[in-house]
């Protein structure tokens, strides 16, 4: 029996057929009109959205509100639970850098972080010595959306660059603040990627500008006190298929320009001894060759996948001649052990790797070559490596958590191997790990490959198929979903849900090959793996098909659309957040911000008939058919530059037209936000409470 009763008539989007012929194949798109022609300008000024489109999105929101009206109290309860698990006046443990230590804190009721510093060895809990550098709540006043990009101090600690986005469009404005007075200087830098890299003297910095198609195409050098129009162009990336960022080395002697897409890298270096020099090319881009750099005094350490090192190896090169011909291997490639990132300090080389699906931190003494690893014993867990803000140190910082263990923050002395617990995540409303079970199981996929699935449930949850399940998946870009502590999902688990994460192909959970086997022509493995996870959970009676609600966002939203088409009968409901579902049309539109950089992930259907047909074969919007679909909730953001609002809008319109079932198809568009949803910490909890209320309602557990 449906949990949705007495619904008003759902909005019907008018059809305005638009035909497109590529590679001799003609397609008709009835809902292409939902894509605003002036989307670039609208992202900066949402008020200019075409009134017909706005009216349709608002009608969808009204229908969604009617369908979810009986969950209002449940949403409030869920929100209160989630908020009750957050220490509202929480503070980070500051990171030491020179004469100071820098951190963030929140105040009770505050939505935004506040950035502070204290004397290097001061007690961060002593408010009397806490100097607030940036008050996010104050800066956000009066704005429907506000997202900080943080604050980055210069070497002498006198000034900081801070950035904000107040539209959700991810065009960030940069300002320069005097850190002693808290006053902003007149400098205002528009249309940036959100951060900058200081020159050592603190009088100038480097930053990235986004073009009209929202691509980071230029690096500029800004001298504090001069207008943006006078900034010097340092480097321009002419290929729209590449992302670009700028950063500085720990020793302040180099500025890194990192140019990359999803499979190819190129670095250019600018010595801070001569800020007017041309950036120096390290190794030119070669398709499929990825590398990243960190400085180690007289050498660079280079993490690279050259010469068949699919899971990466580490090379070194002299600082004065870092070109490829001078590289030599220092950490060899070990198939199946994926090196994720690396850091270098005066006496140690550090890297984070994943082996057998679990992370570990490896430390090498640079003088003796002796290595040791930091690892943990739980069946599934998450590690985060934050390193240090100083080069001449033996102490690095890392975090640890599992699905049942709240996050713990450690300082680790690499020389003595002494571990110091700095902080354990507090759950003010209480949390007893012994009440819960976390497990790592393996689901056989269509080709016999075993897919890891992480589970969390209460000890008293019946495992007879009757438990509802939220099954989460992503599976793209090599991103691994960690098995870390998540206080929000406890609101489902405490109501008898099994919370499951399917570590499907397309991520790097089982090494780089795991990623390659879920991209380009092999993309459908991602979808089949997720369905295999549902099959396994049904077969082993952790849940049943009639009780599974699937959830995924962005590229994980593409996953949701694909499994809805491929196996709708195996899911009771589907939550698709900012879902990338109009894959073929988006990959055919090279004006969209992410399209050229995404071709190495999905294929280029403009140039290749083969990839046109591959993408057309799974693109969720194109594959919607007349069949009974489960209850679906799609969420979009009006100013989202990554997955544009019209993707879920078109998908929902087509689903509603085609479905032969009675389950509702709902869409919620956040008219004040972009890809990441609401910007404040409690506003974000309200969105999660809404999604979970949908899951609980669909599961019949209200």
Automatic annotation (TrEMBL):
Q: Which UniProt keywords apply?
A: Hydrolase, Protease, Serine protease
Q: Which Gene3D superfamilies match?
A: alpha/beta hydrolase, Prolyl oligopeptidase, N-terminal domain
Start and end residues of each Peptidase S9 prolyl oligopeptidase catalytic domain: 485-700
Locate the Peptidase S9A N-terminal domain: which residues?
A: 11-424
* Annotated region (Disordered), positions in chain: 1-23
Q: InterPro entries attached here?
A: AB_hydrolase_fold (IPR029058), Pept_S9_AS (IPR002471), Pept_S9A_N (IPR023302), Peptidase_S9_cat (IPR001375), Peptidase_S9A (IPR002470), Serine_Peptidase_S9A (IPR051543)
Query: Is Hydrolase there in the keyword field?
Result: yes
Record Pfam families = Peptidase_S9, Peptidase_S9_N
What is stated as this protein's family in its record? Belongs to the peptidase S9A family.
UniProt protein name? S9 family peptidase
Organism field: Sinorhizobium garamanticum
């Amino acid at each position: 029996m449906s949990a949705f009763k007495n619904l008003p008539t759902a909005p019907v989007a008018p059809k305005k057929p638009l035909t497109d012929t590529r590679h001799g194949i003609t397609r008709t798109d009835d809902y292409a009109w939902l894509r605003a022609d002036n989307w670039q300008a609208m992202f900066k000024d949402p008020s200019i959205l075409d009134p017909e489109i706005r009216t349709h999105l608002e009608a969808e929101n009204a229908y969604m509100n009617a369908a979810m009206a009986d969950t209002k109290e449940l949403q409030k309860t869920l929100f209160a639970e989630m908020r009750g698990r957050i220490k509202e006046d929480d503070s980070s443990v500051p990171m030491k850098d020179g004469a100071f230590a820098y951190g963030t804190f929140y105040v009770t009721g505050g939505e935004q972080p506040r950035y502070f510093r204290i004397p290097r060895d001061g007690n961060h809990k002593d408010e009397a010595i806490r100097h607030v550098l940036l008050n996010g709540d104050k800066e956000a006043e009066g704005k429907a959306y506000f997202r900080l990009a943080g604050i980055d101090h210069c070497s002498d600690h006198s000034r900081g660059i801070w950035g904000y986005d107040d539209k959700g469009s991810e065009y960030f404005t940069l300002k320069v603040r005097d850190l002693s007075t808290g006053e902003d200087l007149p400098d205002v830098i528009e249309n940036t990627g959100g951060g900058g890299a200081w020159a050592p003297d603190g009088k100038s910095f480097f930053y990235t500008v986004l073009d009209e198609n929202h691509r980071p195409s230029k690096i500029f050098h800004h001298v504090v006190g001069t207008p943006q129009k006078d900034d010097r162009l340092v480097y321009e990336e002419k290929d729209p298929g590449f992302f670009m960022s700028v950063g500085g080395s720990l020793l302040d002697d180099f500025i890194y320009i990192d140019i990359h897409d999803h499979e190819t890298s190129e670095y250019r270096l600018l010595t801070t001894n001569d800020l007017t020099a041309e950036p120096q090319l390290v190794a030119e881009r070669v398709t499929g060759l990825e590398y990243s750099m960190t400085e180690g005094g007289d050498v660079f350490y280079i993490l690279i996948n050259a010469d068949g090192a699919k899971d990466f190896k580490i090379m070194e090169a002299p600082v004065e001649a870092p070109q490829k011909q001078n590289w030599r291997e220092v950490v060899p490639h070990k198939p199946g052990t994926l090196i994720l990132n690396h850091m270098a300090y005066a006496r140690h080389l550090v890297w984070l790797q994943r082996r057998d699906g679990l992370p570990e931190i490896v430390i090498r003494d640079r003088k003796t070559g002796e290595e040791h690893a930091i690892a943990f014993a739980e069946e599934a867990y998450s590690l985060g490596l934050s390193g240090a803000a100083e080069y001449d140190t033996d102490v690095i910082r890392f975090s640890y958590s599992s699905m049942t263990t709240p996050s713990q923050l450690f300082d680790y002395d690499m020389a003595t191997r002494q571990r110091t617990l700095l902080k354990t995540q507090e759950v003010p409303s209480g949390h007893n790990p012994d009440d819960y079970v976390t497990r790592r199981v393996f689901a056989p996929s269509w080709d016999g490959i075993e897919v890891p699935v992480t589970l969390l449930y209460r000890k008293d949850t019946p495992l007879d198929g009757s438990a509802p399940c939220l099954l989460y998946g992503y599976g793209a870009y090599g991103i691994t979903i960690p098995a870390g502590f998540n206080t929000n999902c406890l609101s489902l688990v405490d109501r008898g849900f099994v919370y499951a994460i399917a570590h499907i192909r397309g991520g790097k959970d089982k090494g780089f090959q795991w990623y390659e086997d879920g991209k380009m022509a092999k993309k459908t493995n991602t979808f089949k793996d997720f369905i295999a996870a549902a099959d396994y959970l049904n077969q082993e009676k952790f849940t049943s098909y009639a009780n599974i609600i699937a959830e995924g966002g962005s590229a994980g939203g593409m996953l949701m659309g694909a499994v809805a088409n491929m196996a709708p009968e195996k899911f009771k409901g589907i939550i698709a957040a900012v879902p990338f579902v109009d894959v073929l049309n988006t990959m055919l539109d090279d004006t969209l911000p992410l399209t050229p950089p995404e071709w190495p992930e999905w294929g280029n259907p403009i140039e290749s008939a083969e990839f046109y047909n591959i993408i057309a074969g799974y693109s969720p919007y194109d594959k919607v058919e007349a069949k009974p679909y489960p209850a679906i909730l799609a969420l979009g953001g009006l100013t989202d530059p990554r997955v544009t609002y019209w993707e879920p809008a078109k998908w929902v319109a087509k689903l509603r037209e085609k479905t032969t079932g009675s389950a509702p198809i709902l869409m919620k568009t956040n008219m004040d936000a972009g890809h990441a949803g609401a910007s404040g910490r409690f506003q974000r909890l309200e969105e999660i409470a809404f999604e979970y209320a949908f899951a609980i309602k669909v599961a019949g557990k209200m």
